[in-house]
């Protein structure tokens, strides 16, 4: 968060299940257009009760397009390729969201599936695998990659795309080194860490979803992978991290935020302040909605300086403009560049961000009183 905030990225959502963590960041300019955020998890560890294996997901609406991000940690060891597929299908079947348009992962227009999927390189011996790695002839190993092999017979896997594995297998390394496992077990290198995606193909949709197909055709979404590689310089794990960069080309279903807000007048800790906001589109307002004051460069929605409940401190200016007061006791004494964010409790997201404005430094008056005898000017003759 401290690294990404200066680059104008804000943490929008996160979910954790033991060691499995998913963080979703967005550029500030997109935040008011990311809505309907939900997160969930599925355990597939020992008897389905332990969370060391399974999947965590975050789904959302991005300019009206339904996206889902699924991070999985599947069963380990060479012989459990079928179990890994079973776990993935179980996660896909059981994760449900409170969303009419996309209640399941598979209903989203774009799904990213990634994580430590634990698929191994089968059949090839250790000497051949390491020789291919040293010679960078990775393509000779692809046919025996278990995920590639399972895709040939599993319909669900065939719906997911993946870029070419033109980088070293990312597992397993000695800690703090670029050396593959030199322990007594000498595990065979493998591409355990993967990034795949599934983009909804309008041409394959069922006739029963004609209305949805018309919407998809009117508001197209295209995806292109720009980079798929590993980062060998990181050595704190026995895995090397994998990076995927994608470009999305889409037509926005809406281009204005739900709320416009601004700081009215001068802001400082010397006087009570006022926020003026106006709804630009209908949205489910709630007594739990609040407006937060943030420093420019804030890291997440919880990184506010102060907040005020909209309904508690609201005064109607007219039917289109609302005023909300902020107590001077809540305004930072040191001042600085700030923004205001309107948070919708019903939508679980920020739906409006003000332009940056200056909060003045609080005036401090210091009175000095001397105990020394006063000196009068000398008489001049």
UniProtKB/TrEMBL annotation:
GO cellular component, one term: ruffle
Residue stretches making up the Inositol polyphosphate-related phosphatase domain: 1-254
Coiled coil: none
SUPFAM superfamilies named among the record's database cross-references: DNase I-like (SSF56219)
GO biological-process terms attached to the record: negative regulation of glycogen biosynthetic process; negative regulation of insulin receptor signaling pathway; negative regulation of phosphatidylinositol 3-kinase/protein kinase B signal transduction; phosphatidylinositol dephosphorylation
Gene3D superfamilies assigned to the protein according to its UniProt record, in alphabetical order: 2.60.40.2840, Endonuclease/exonuclease/phosphatase
A GO molecular-function descriptor: inositol bisphosphate phosphatase activity
Pfam families hit by this protein: Exo_endo_phos2, SKICH
Annotated InterPro entries: Endo/exonu/phosph_ase_sf, IP5, IPPc, SKICH
PANTHER family: INOSITOL 5-PHOSPHATASE (PTHR11200), INOSITOL POLYPHOSPHATE 5-PHOSPHATASE K (PTHR11200:SF117)
Record family assignment: Belongs to the inositol 1,4,5-trisphosphate 5-phosphatase type II family.
Protein name as annotated: Inositol polyphosphate 5-phosphatase K-like
Biological source species: Sphaeramia orbicularis (orbiculate cardinalfish)
């Amino acid at each position: 968060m401290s690294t990404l905030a200066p680059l104008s990225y804000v943490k929008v959502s996160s979910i954790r299940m033991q060691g499995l963590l998913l963080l979703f960041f967005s550029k500030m300019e997109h935040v008011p257009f990311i809505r309907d955020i939900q997160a969930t998890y599925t355990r597939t560890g020992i008897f389905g009760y332990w969370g060391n294996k399974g999947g965590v997901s975050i789904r959302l609406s991005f300019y009206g397009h339904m996206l889902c991000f699924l991070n999985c940690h599947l069963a380990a060891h060479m012989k459990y390729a079928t179990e890994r597929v079973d776990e993935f299908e179980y996660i896909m079947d059981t994760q449900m969201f409170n969303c009419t348009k996309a209640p399941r992962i598979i209903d989203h227009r774009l799904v990213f599936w990634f994580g430590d999927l634990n698929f191994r390189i089968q059949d090839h011996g250790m000497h051949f695998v390491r020789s291919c790695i040293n010679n960078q002839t990775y393509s000779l190993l692809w046919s025996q990659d278990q995920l590639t092999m399972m895709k040939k017979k599993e319909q669900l896997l065939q719906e997911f795309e993946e870029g070419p594995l033109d980088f070293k297998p990312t597992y397993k390394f000695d800690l703090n080194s670029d050396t593959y496992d030199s322990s007594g077990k000498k595990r065979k290198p493998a591409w355990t860490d993967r990034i795949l995606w599934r983009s909804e193909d309008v041409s394959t949709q069922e006739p029963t979803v004609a209305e949805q197909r018309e919407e998809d055709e009117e508001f197209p979404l295209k995806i292109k992978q720009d980079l798929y590689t590993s980062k060998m310089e990181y050595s704190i794990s026995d895995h090397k991290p994998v990076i995927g960069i994608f470009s999305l080309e889409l037509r926005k279903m809406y281009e204005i935020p739900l709320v416009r807000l601004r700081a009215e007048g001068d802001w400082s800790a010397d006087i009570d302040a006022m926020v003026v906001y106006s709804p630009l589109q209908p949205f489910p307002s709630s007594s739990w909605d609040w407006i937060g004051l943030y420093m420019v460069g804030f890291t997440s929605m919880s990184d506010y300086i102060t907040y005020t409940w909209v309904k508690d401190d609201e005064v109607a200016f007219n039917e289109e403009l609302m005023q909300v007061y902020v107590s001077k006791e809540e305004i930072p004494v040191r001042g600085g560049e700030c923004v205001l964010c309107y948070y919708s409790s019903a939508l679980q997201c920020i739906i409006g961000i003000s332009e940056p404005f200056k909060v003045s430094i609080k005036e401090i008056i210091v009175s000095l009183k001397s105990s020394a005898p006063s000196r009068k000017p000398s008489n001049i003759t």
